[in-house]
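Structure, all two chains, one model.
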Amino acid sequence: MTTRGLRILWNVAILAGMGVYIARFGKYPLQTTLFPRLVGYPVLALALLSLGREVIALISRHSAEPRLNLPQLALAVAFGLAYLALWQLLGFALDTIWFLTVTPWILSRQTRQLPVYFGVGVATAALFSFLFHLGSGAILPRGIFNVGWI
Amino acid sequence: MPWMAGLALIVQPVNLFAMVFGSAVGLFIGTLPGLGPAFALTLFLPLTFPLPTVPALTFLVSMYTAAVYGGAISAILINVPGHPGNIATTFDGFPMARQGRAGEAIAAVGVAGAVGGILSVIVLTVVAPLVVDIAVKISPADYFMLAVFGLSMVSATAGRHVIEGLLLGGLGFLFSTVGEDPITGSYRFTYGSQYLLSNGISFSVVVVGLFALGSAFLMLEERHLPKPMETARIRHDFWVGVRQALTHPVEVLRSSVVGVIMGVVPGLGIAISNIAAYLVESRWRPNAGWGEGNVVGVMAPEAADNATLIAELIPAFTLGIPGAATSALMLDAITVHGLQPGPSFFSGGAEVTAFFLAMGLSQIVFAILGILFARFFAKGAEVPTTVLAPIIIVMGCVGAYAIHGAIGDIVLALIFGGVGYIILKMRWPLAPMVLGTILGPLAEDNYRRALLIAQTTHQSPFLSPLPIALGILSIAVFVFPLIGQVRDWRARLRETATP
């Protein structure tokens, strides 16, 4: 996919989102939707304008667009979701150590650096634990070194 | 204002520690390419929630001001500006470093930046209360149009991407409508989600996603592997730099004034002010060896940067209308820590004066830290993205979770991380969406109030001189760049159509 493809996809997503948003106008009292109407319709027009411009440029093929590194992009999204899953599974702190050890290793494939990554993971988890214990402790609902399922 | 009480607060050990620690963190983050004060605030603001007001705000404001100086250090030593606000510093900074004058450049920048920042703090404390006097006379219709004008200015400075800038600003406005209606208190656009019903789309979650996670995703997609960089040697000629700054007071003050003006006008920010100050100085003395290691060439941009960063807070703290993403984040920071912008802010107690004093003193602290540990901080620019990105993801997720203590915050931040990635990838500006999200509630609240007033007075409040003038200006700043853009686009199409 090229960056133009991503721009077209972005505009289509906005149009779809605006469709869902505008469809709700009728469900609420008019007063509540005055401001959303005032902003929503111009945003819809701008999204259409932006999409039209991209489509015309695509048809006229007037410039080459850089390609996206899709496998890496998928990896980036997967890492975000993996961290969320680890948080749920392991609880806070252990997930941080695990994530900060394994992720840089997968990304750079430098086995020699593993102890450094592990150190960074432990230090970051300890820092967060310390910071949040200074306050309410609400960030650690299941304890600092909670291992979740064990 | 109770200045002595504020001074007594700020010299407490915990607050001094917060100032030094905040400056050190800001300096380090500032050296990381592409990550500036907005990123630093986004990442650390949620982590300060449990802290008391004064240490939390001291930490944040010290980090905020030091981040730009950190970017200047890497601009001088390795020719990599940490932030767009440091671009002009590379013009003469790196040549100075190659001539073996890195220490001189770093010290000169530190002193000039501190002077610019302190001057701007003085302007903020003197001018802002006067603006507040005007602010209390502003009607809801004026407020609404001011918010629209601020947003259109920021969108219009998006260069070639005016349409996208406005679109992002409009989307920011719309995100703020999810959840509770500010007038009736009823709920809307929650789509049956318990999370959206309770929290809406929080500004803090949006910025964590846009700035922190968006940057991390971009790093992972582009995967720039670290290259060994040539770090210029630092000779201990710091005193030469300090002397240089003291022997060029007119240039430093002139650049600081340029910075203050650029800061007060919405939408300009440090990315423009550093180049503007450089241009002003280079036009003032055209044949002074610009680009070949002229020390004024590093002092002018950095004095302007620091002055702009503080001056941006004037409209934010007086009217509640920030003109840049950085000031929007500082506005959010003071609000979540219990201080309210507007008239009450400037008649506030010791906490407010302590905040102003922290802003001024941190300018001296970061200059000293930067000068002493420049070589260490410059290493920040060499941290591989494979290490940096996972750390940012972790900190972003923890920061998002700290906002409401809900997993839904992390999910929402990840979604906005995707949006931030697209915006950064396309080189569109992030500021309009950030500003739209923070200005949305203010704009809607005042729009609805203005309409309620109109119902009782049977006169449109939008037809008075100030709203009309602001409306015309808002349209003008949007239309003029758009005309140029359409003209360029048609010319390009014609060129490709010609065989």
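Chain B has one domain: 3-492.
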